[in-house]
Every structure is written in structure tokens, then in C-alpha cells.
Design goal:
There is one protein chain. The protein is α/β, with parallel strands linked by helices. It folds into two domains: about 30-285, Rossmann fold; about 305-388, no CATH class. Helix content is about 30%, strand content about 20%. The protein has a nine-stranded mixed sheet, sandwiched between helices. Strands 10-9-12 form a three-stranded antiparallel sheet. A hairpin with a 5-residue loop joins strand 13 (about 260-265) and strand 14 (about 270). Helix 1 packs parallel to helix 5 (about 210-215).
Length: about 400
């Protein structure tokens, strides 16, 4: 008798399934710094991202304790301000600033095909959310390179002004920005600052970005670092800040897309400024990057699945759950996820494409408080009526 092809099994089968994992929380900041460290540990390779999680790892970039190079002070000050993971990419020092700058900008080695300098940032084991190259980022070419990589991996960039005078700073900022520059994610800080050096047994000057990175990492990615204290003992030049005066020097700098380290009424020194070079709130950039990174990372698991109605419904519910978490945590005030009503055509579907809309609101930073203080005779009259 031939086998019955329709027969499967005289019994039961149990098939279990698991729903797709949730998108999870937004994630924490990861810093990547590019620069020089002539006294690095012998085990550390040039142009390879090295993870520096805490003070115990500092000898990897300063094995002698002489505090040489552009990286060590930025690492120390960032960890002093925020408990954040830092990756460092060490490049070889050149004969002069121009040669070292070329190493920092990097590229692809034609012989070994190894990524070098800023080009090696995407090789970090954890995706950086903040990029900087203290000591070199007062140059447009370095800012351009950082901004280009920052746009690719969705990371904000901390850069430096010339730290000379405000006229030169404004002139420098006028060379930045524009369509296609990616400078809408560049947070530029002036001036250089004084910090205490154990090796020098006194104060030394370091770029403002060396402490601004820590201020940015000490707040959530969707928050502004403005008004954060910075661990410095002084600044290379005084930038006036007056909370009441629209004509003060710090206001001029902010109006042109920069941030300043100033002495404020809070005492000590604070980072003043909420916007990037293009005038966009840095908190808006961080929020957008946070959302887009999460959507990107969560999408890989469902690639190549058949686009059935249940598949679409599942994805919309999954992303809406992430959005609801953002609302509950007061990261955004509201939002909605849905299929695009007009772009999801038959031809696009047959080509394997579909469109999801992620609408969301944003909380603006408190940049300008406006008080109306009015003297009114009404309250005098009411007082007199109550006692006469």
C-alpha cells in the first residue's frame, strides 16, 4: 500500500512563539574623543578605538602621568562631570599642528586599508553619541570631518572657537553652517579654560570642549547642556554674561550659533548656550538622533519578513509602545505612529517598500523667561478699604 501523503501525525504538536522584543529605553551617551597621547600604553594601537570606562583606564592613554597630549585632560574632565563610557582614538603626533591635524582628520590608509583618525569613529564597539577632538576642533576642516561622521552615526559634535576675542569668534562661526554641512549638530564652545594639573602643580589652559563634553554627557540626550556648571578655575578671556542684558557679549555669541563659558550668578563657571551653529536647539538634535538610532537598531530583526497585514500591525504597535514610553518619561509631550496614507502605493509595495510615519512633539529648553511686573492701584485701594 502506498504511503498516504495527506497523513501528518496521529497525536499533537506544540508550537510556541515569542513576540518581537520591545524597542527598549532610549539608551545612554557614549563619548568618542580623537587626539594625541604620546605616553599611551604600549598595548594601545594608533587609530583603533580604545574603551576608557573609568579612572582605572586612564593609564592606557597616559602611562607616565605626565598629562601629555590632547586627550588626557578631556578624558579626566569628562569623567569628573559624568559617569560615561569614553572611546579614544589616538593618532600619532606630527612635526607641527598641521601634520597632527591631518592625522586627526584621518581617512583610509591606502596600503593597509585601515581607517584612521576621525574616520575610525564608526569602529567603536558601542555607537558614540558625542564626538570631539579637543585641541584640533578650532579648525573648520576638523569640524567638517566630525560633523560628517556625526551625521552618519547620529552623534552630536562639540567643537571650539578660536579663544581670542568675540569678533574673531563671530567671523569664524560665519564660515560654518549651510546646506549639506551637517553643522546643525555642532555645538561650538568658547573660550579655552583653566584647569588644575597635578603634573604642573598649577593651572593650565585647555580647550573649552575638554569640559563641555562632560556637560553635554551629564544631561539626557534630549536636554540642553546650557546652564551646567563646568569644573574649571577660570577662562582664557572673560565673556560677559548678564541674565537681564540682551546686549551682553554672551548673547551676541549665542545669536551667532555659539556657546560660552561664563561666570554667572550661580557662582563658579557655567556653560551658557542651547543651540548649535545653525541656531537649532542641541536638545532637538539629540532627541531626533535618539529616536532614529532606536528605530534603526530595532529594524534589523524584521528585515526580509513578508509584509502581511498582521506584520504591519505588529510593527506599528511595537513602535507605538516605544513612543508611549517616551511620553510617559516626559521625553516628548505626545506623538503617533501610523502608515503613511498616500505613499504606500501598490507599486511601492511590490518593490518591497512601505512607509511609516513617526510624528512626535518636542519640549523646548527654557531659554527666555519673560516676567510682566505690574504695579496696580487696585491693590492699594483694596488695602485701604480693608482698614478704613
Amino acid at each position: 500500500m502506498p504511503l498516504n501523503p495527506a497523513f501528518e501525525h496521529n497525536g499533537i504538536s506544540i508550537i510556541t512563539t515569542e513576540p518581537l522584543p520591545p524597542l527598549g529605553p532610549p539608551g545612554e551617551d557614549v563619548v568618542c574623543l580623537v587626539g594625541t597621547a604620546p605616553d599611551k600604553d604600549a598595548s594601545v594601537q594608533y587609530n583603533v578605538p580604545i574603551r576608557v570606562a573609568n579612572q582605572g583606564h586612564w593609564p592606557l592613554i597616559d602611562s607616565t602621568g605626565d598629562e601629555r597630549g590632547s586627550l588626557i585632560h578631556a578624558v579626566m574632565k569628562t569623567h569628573e562631570k559624568a559617569a560615561v563610557t569614553i572611546y579614544v582614538i589616538i593618532v600619532e603626533e606630527g612635526a607641527d599642528l598641521a601634520a597632527s591635524t591631518a592625522s586627526v582628520i584621518g581617512g583610509i590608509d591606502p596600503a593597509s586599508k585601515q581607517k584612521q583618525g576621525i574616520s575610525a569613529v564608526p569602529d567603536c564597539m558601542e555607537r558614540p553619541t558625542i564626538l570631539a577632538a579637543p585641541g584640533f576642533s578650532h579648525q573648520k576642516a576638523v569640524i567638517d570631518a566630525l560633523a560628517s561622521v556625526g551625521a552618519r552615526i547620529r552623534a552630536r559634535v562639540v567643537a571650539d572657537g578660536p579663544s581670542t576675542d568675540t569678533e574673531a569668534l563671530v567671523a569664524f562661526m560665519e564660515t560654518l553652517g549651510g546646506d549639506g554641512s551637517n553643522h546643525d549638530r555642532v555645538y561650538l564652545v568658547d573660550p579655552a579654560v583653566s584647569i588644575y594639573s597635578r603634573k604642573a602643580k598649577g593651572d593650565i589652559l585647555v580647550p573649552g570642549s575638554a569640559v563641555a563634553v562632560g556637560a553635554l554627557a551629564s544631561v539626557k540626550q534630549w536636554e540642553s547642556p546650557g546652564n551646567q556648571s563646568v569644573p574649571v578655575s577660570g577662562t582664557a578671556r572673560t565673556i560677559e554674561y548678564n541674565i537681564l542684558d540682551k546686549t551682553c557679549e554672551s548673547d551676541l555669541i549665542q545669536r551667532n550659533g555659539g556657546a560660552a563659558i561664563c561666570h554667572t550668578a550661580l557662582g563658579g563657571w557655567s556653560l551658557v548656550g542651547n543651540r548649535t551653529i545653525t541656531g537649532r536647539f542641541i536638545s532637538y538634535v539629540g532627541l531626533e538622533d535618539t529616536i532614529c538610532r532606536k528605530l534603526e537598531m530595532s529594524s534589523q530583526i524584521v528585515m526580509a519578513k513578508n509584509m502581511t497585514k498582521s506584520f504591519w500591525d505588529q510593527q506599528i504597535r511595537r513602535i507605538n509602545a516605544f513612543l508611549d514610553d517616551l511620553i510617559a518619561a516626559e521625553i516628548i509631550p505626545g506623538g503617533q505612529v501610523y502608515l503613511h496614507p498616500t505613499l504606500n502605493t501598490a507599486s511601492r509595495y511590490q518593490n518591497g517598500s512601505w512607509y511609516i510615519v513617526f510624528d512626535y512633539g518636542r519640549y523646548a529648553p527654557n531659554e527666555h523667561m519673560i516676567f510682566h511686573v505690574n504695579a496696580k492701584e487696585q491693590f492699594v485701594e483694596e488695602f485701604l478699604e480693608s482698614v478704613l
